[in-house]
Amino acid sequence: MAQDTPQPPTEMLKFSLLGSPPAVLSVRLGKLAIPGRKPISTPHYIPLTSRGAVPHLAHDVMRDNSSIGCLYIGLEDFIEKRQQFQKSKLPIPLYAVPTAPHESALRKFVCLSDDLLLILGARREPPIACPASNTDSSIAISTSLGFTQLEATDYVGAIQRLSPDIVVGLSDLVIGQQPGVKRQVKMVDRTHAFTTHATDNLYGPQVSEHSRSTAAYFAPVLPLENTQQQLYLEDLETDMRPFVSGLALYEPASLSVIPETLGDLPRLLFSQPDTPHDLLREIEIGADLLTIPFLSTASDAGMSFNFVFPSPSQYDTNEPLPLADNLWSPTNATDTNPLLPSCTCYTCTHHHRAYIQHLLSAKEMLAWTLLQIHNHAVMDAFFASVRSSIERGTFESDVSIFQRTYAPEFPEVTGEGPRLRGYKLPSSAAAQPRKYPPAYGRLDDLVANNKLAEAQSDCVTPDTGAEGLEEHGFARKV
To answer: For residue 462, what is the DSSP state?
Structure first.
């Protein structure tokens, strides 16, 4: 009898709501804890990664100069060989990491500390639209070698091999366009099948104790009406409830379709908010964990966050304060003030605006590192103040003050960001021109003007005499 009874993964993740149970679609406080990992007080944000690292932040910089305690990692960032899904003998490097039974191959491959909570999803966030469509047994993904299919069985195998702390289940999402009625029916059927397959093969009664996954499973909730996915939600409430530790949602409206019996589960929202105002609206209707793509986007654009919650004590309602400052602006060239006077991050306590403006102008990578440190510190303080506001019972009025104080959008981007990764520059048509100019082309003009052909050697020779060289400071006549 004991072998036939599935073991619910209650030891994987503990999520407790603080205070009295909140009403449906209302703000709430909670605490999420996994043994051996940093606990997360909710509401909170989940930092996004590229190849297992927060953009511009080395692991030691992240550890010493930020309060980051969890990361979201997309599996498609590491799938480099399509042959892996064609029964090739060449293994994906991530899967070839030698590990002890208690170790996580994912954690070991990206060299992250043991106390950092890792969330694994099939796709990076925000996802790239794929020309190929999802199928009944797979989803389309964008790898470093192009688009391919990730089979549901391969994803389950990856979860068992990599041992993340939390895994986001596969879902049949349509990216970049509105699905039709027939397509919506397929979305529900496929996601239902993906979730059933994963929970059965990771935690079901037929899975041996040695093969049973230790990852907490977050079941996806589709961005559709309640009636369209009613059977799927009912199965989540009954048959799959012992194996589901949380919910993954893809639009704020999905918070309204969550059944009351699943209301005690943590909610991870992948909604791609544009501003802090959007974040507050999502928190107000019950989101617990949120992803914020605009955080790294703002750092790439040379923007430093300067908002605080609920708002500064003195403000002019006729002139909304900007949500961020554009460090590319020439007005920062001689400004020796910190990015935000009230901020205690490494950037604000060691450097000033003029220095970061100089780094941006020189295209030094340190500029974006310092901006990332600061912007993450501002978001940490923002969410800490949000939680304090909820605990005081002043959240609604504080949100109203914040909305009146700050501009509804970020300032316009004027400068150039760092070189982007390939998946951030998807091609929209064949035979497109280069996205970037050649990095090393300084001799092209000399070749075009036959300067190299006139030289007596293989090296470029000066076209002036000793007096000219001395005049320009390159030599001195003896």
So the answer is: -
Closest CA to 303 of 252, 230, 379: 379
Q: CA 227 to CA 342: how far, in whole Å?
A: 48
Helix (H, G, I), strand (E, B) or coil at 30: strand
The structure tokens 């793509």 sit at: 293
Length of the chain: 478
pLDDT at position 396 is: 94
Q: If we measure between CA atoms, which residue out of 76, 75, 48 comes closest to residue 62?
A: 48
Q: How far apart are CA 472 and CA 476, in angstroms?
A: 10
Contact by Cβ (8 Å): 167, 74: no
Residues 6+ apart with CB under 8 A from 218: 119, 166, 167, 168, 169, 244, 245, 246, 247, 248, 266, 268
Kindly report the backbone phi and psi dihedral angles of residue 233, in degrees, each rounded to the nearest multiple of 5, phi listed first. -65, -35
Q: Which of 50, 80, 121, 126 is nearest to 292 (CA)?
A: 126
State the amino acid at position 305 in one-letter form.
F
User: Over the stretch 244-298, which tens digit does the pLDDT of each residue have?
Assistant: 999 999 999 999 999 999 999 999 999 999 999 999 999 999 999 999 999 999 9
Separation between Cα atoms, residue 82 and residue 154, nearest integer Å: 12
pLDDT in tens, 86-119: 555 567 888 888 998 889 999 999 999 999 999 9
Which tokens belong to 255? 């918070």
Residues 6+ apart with CB under 8 A from 74: 49, 120, 121, 122, 123, 124, 125
Can you tell me whether residue 475 is helix, strand or coil? coil
Q: What is the model's pLDDT at position 422?
A: 60
CA nearest 246: which of 478, 15, 8? 15
CB 410 within 8 A of CB 303: yes
What is the C-alpha R_g of the chain? Answer: 26
On whether the CB atoms of residues 367 and 356 are closer than 8 A, the answer is yes
Mean residue pLDDT of the chain comes to 87
Helix orientation angle between 276-284 and 395-405, rounded to the nearest 10 degrees? 160
The model's confidence at residue 417, banded by pLDDT at 50, 70 and 90, is confident
- Per residue in 32-71, pLDDT tens? 999 999 999 999 999 999 999 999 999 999 999 999 999 9
311: helix, strand or coil? coil
**Exposure pattern of 113-128 as b/e (b: 16+ CB <10 Å)?**
eeebbbbbbbbbbebb
Where does 54-165 show beta strands of DSSP type E?
70-74, 117-121, 138-143, 146-151
